[in-house]
Amino acid sequence: MNALEHQLDYPYADTLPEPGLAFDVAPGVKWLRMPLPFALDHINLWLLRDEIDGQQGWTVVDCGITNDTIKARWEAVFENQLEGLPVLRVLVTHCHPDHIGLAHWICAGGDKARWDVRLWTTLGEYMQARVMAAGDGSNAGGDGAARHFARHGLTDEASLDKLRNRRGYYGSLVPTLPTQYRRLREADTVTIGGRDWRVITGYGHSPEHCALFCEETGVLISGDMVLPRISTNVSVFDMEPEGNPLGLYLESLGRYETLPENTLVLPSHGKPFRGVRTRIAQLRAHHDARLAEVMEACERVPQSAADIVPMMFKRELDIHQMTFAMGEALAHLNLLWLAGKVTRTTAADGVIRFAA
Predict the structure, then answer these.
(1) Is the pTM of this model over 0.85?
(2) Which of 27, 155, 157, 218 has the fewest beta carbons under 10 Å from its own?
(3) Which of 277, 274, 294, 297 is CA-nearest to residue 334?
(4) How far apart are CA 85 and CA 87, in angstroms?
């Protein structure tokens, strides 16, 4: 546990759900944990006891990527953890593969087609997922991503080739999506198991991220917007090269700062914790420090995003991590540029650089 984590309260300490088993964390809420084949090696998923139109069952929040291991663990959950009741709906916080990848399969009842239920999410997340699943501007790979990062200083040809070869990356994790969905919007109230959950949307990490807060039980399902150990990735990708996701993210954090400090935060990665305002203050301080470092570097000599990456990420990065590192470095540069604190020019070598 690092120094910042010591400022938070982890009510379940080091307890984690066993594979294929659900762990009670709040009234009517069970915690599942599924593996991921990345450096970030897990995702937390949630089962909420529910009733819709007189039918008893469960709401699933987030799904995991499409792969056989996760399907097998979900099948164990369906058989042994649902008290013989069906899933009644699938609610997805956002469009990233570890959250929406298996939505189509869970909505259709898994391998045994046990039920046929609706996907609930925001318009921004559903439409972005549809675009990326179609292979049009996936952000994570393909020719567009390679051109985008080359313009920002990634000149290693081997890395660029790896990016070009990832054009089907999103679709490999999200092979299809439900063709219909139910729209969620900011401040909507979703009644789940007789309790009201307020939708809190957030921006910067994804187009229209959906978190859920239950005032009655003091529980926030935070998705990726508020994480306890790592900072949420905010990246500028090729689809919106002049975007300001970091500005949007920092603005969005204000929607969580009004929640009680003792709110039980259920994050998508890491462990449940209390201390939401403390954690947001830590995240703000983290980005303030990063912005100061980036500004100082730009005052010394013009900087590309690739120049900033080793300053922000002091470890070896694989191509998956490099896409997010480049995107996040550019997010900090774009915030300073759009605020008028640095200028942006394209040099003779075709690389975009930022200077104070």
Answers:
(1) yes
(2) 157
(3) 294
(4) 7
